[in-house]
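Working notes for the structural subgroup meeting. M.R. asked for a predicted model of this chain before we commit to crystallization trials. I am recording the input and output together here so anyone reviewing the notebook later can reproduce the run.

Input as submitted:
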Amino acid sequence: MHQRVYSLLWLLGTILVFLAGCKTSESAAVKNEHSLLWKIEGKNLKRPSYVLGTIHLLPQKDFFLSESMKLALANTQQVVLELDMDDPTMGMNMLQNASMSEGNTLNKLLSEGDYQQLDAIFKKSTGVGIEAFNKWQPMLVASVVMQQMMDTQIASYELTLVRLAQEAQKEVKGLESIQEQTEAMATIPYTQQAKYLSELLNDVDKQKTLFGKMVELYKSQNINALLDYIVTQSGGIDFSTVLLNERNQKWVPRIALHAAEKPTFFAVGAGHLPGKDGVLALLRKAGYRVTAVL
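Returned structure, recorded in token form:
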């Protein structure tokens, strides 16, 4: 179960980077300093909160937590991620919300060859054949395929932050539920999801190259360049409205509530931060002072 949850979390971050749509192109022109960590102050906040842009999973060799990030975490009293990752019901909730509707199944959406490739990958990765996941949304299934691109030890910002929070006896919360995430993904037609999954299965080398470039941009902390790369690689497909912008709109009032409650360390996928519809701009619009922590 842990492995399957791990897969979902990576997917929900990386899929935004690979497939965020062309409507973000205007947002990408917004100027920001090169930083993954931002301080939230002002309005009704007695003490600052912070928001960190992450990649949900990446090679261990590329993982880093700067001294500024560690200090911000130390100076806050709770950690809020996209999902509440220390919720013991998380795995069960994922299983309950992963399935497609209206009788759709992977074997109906994919070619026989692609389906057999998936079966081999799932048996190797999870010990269970693809039949057990036949009703899952294709973009969720793609997460397991994505992990095959990483031929090295994997690191996770979210799991690291959960561990550090638990060690410091800080509460971990989530900005949204698994149901909200999977419902957002389900607005993308299953046929389009299946097309992406097929391309991923049949051009792994290209996906490795794309992901490697994304990681390098992430390490440079240039979130605008990262968003520009998203736009360039989107192929004109607009997934950003649902997977980025609409979620950002829902998150900002929740961020405000958490930050008003107590100083909070937020961590969300880096693709959510920049642009006129990004979390940083929306927080400023709501009256907060948001500045880069270098």
